[in-house]
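User: Could you write out the 3D structure of this protein bound to guanosine-5'-triphosphate? I've included everything you need below.
Assistant: Certainly. Input first, then the structure.
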Amino acid sequence: MIKPAFPLDEAFRLNTLRALNLLDTPPEERFDRLTRMARRMFGVTTALVSLVDENRQWFKSKQGLSDTETPRDISFCGHAILADTPLVIPDALADPRFFDNPLVTGPPHVRFYAGCPLHATNGSKLGTLCIFDPEPRAFGAEDIQLLSDLAAIVEQEISTYQMATVDELTRLYNRRGFLNQAQPALDLARDKKAPCSLVFFDLDKFKAINDRFGHAEGDKALLAFADQMRRSFRDADILARLGGDEFVALLLDCPDGLAQTIVDRLRTALDRRNQFTGSGYPIVCSFGIIHIALDASAPIEALLSRADVLMYENKRNRKAAEFVH
Ligand SMILES: Nc1nc2c(ncn2[C@@H]2O[C@H](COP(=O)(O)OP(=O)(O)OP(=O)(O)O)[C@@H](O)[C@H]2O)c(=O)[nH]1
């Protein structure tokens, strides 16, 4: 067996894949429809949308397979993303790369495989639309064209998904992306009895930045705040721009007090930026933090409303304190 090599742009490719926020998300009909079509059109046992992650291939959609992922080093798709054209293996037992691969010698007993690379809009190869079957078979030019056409639809769905769930300016989640991610993450955290926190941010006097310095400068301030959020929170936290100058962070597996520490760190970094940037205006935020109790069952929307109310109290108090001074 030959393990798949790493593509030359592996780090860039992985960044692109992770930024899509598709890994470990629930199945979706718009992808399942396409794998169902592939299975039926080609009369194979299995059709997958496989995303090739650092050490595994994970299936966004699967027909005819119960596994949700397999190790990358035994994957066929790890090989398929190394070329721009589809990889076709008419008979895995006759191929030196695969004849003794555990996916060939054991379940699901792959003999025939065809995988078409799926490209992100920046050209990175994310994974494949692939089909396989326990019987060897010939796969001609027309078949390859058909599989490529289906793969192009999967690519379109991936880019539509990204546009619908990611904030175009900051590349954080938008409201829809946040709700998609946050509710299942919260449900999982409750099952695991891991405490979480939610932080709601709203920039102070943001309208004045737009009014005095122009909309483009306002955009720069929003970007600077988003960048600071990325730097201050942890990789596993779910960050979003809900709209306008409102941002939110869901901290998973977060001991009581950690959210406050991170918010303090973020505000200290903003203060430092405000002193040295020379932009002519400070970026300041109000925030509300709620700690989500282990036995809480409120949906994420209700938690957002509670954090929003706390943020407004914080903003009102800060305005009142300014007025006194
Ligand atoms: N530059 C820019 N401005 C935006 C964007 N989306 C919303 N806005 C503006 O953001 C402003 C938000 O207004 P407010 O919530 O009243 O902002 P504020 O001045 O921070 O008010 P306080 O929160 O009470 O301090 C509005 O003027 C919107 O037009 C955007 O994508 N870019």
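The mean pLDDT is 93.
User: Perfect, thank you.
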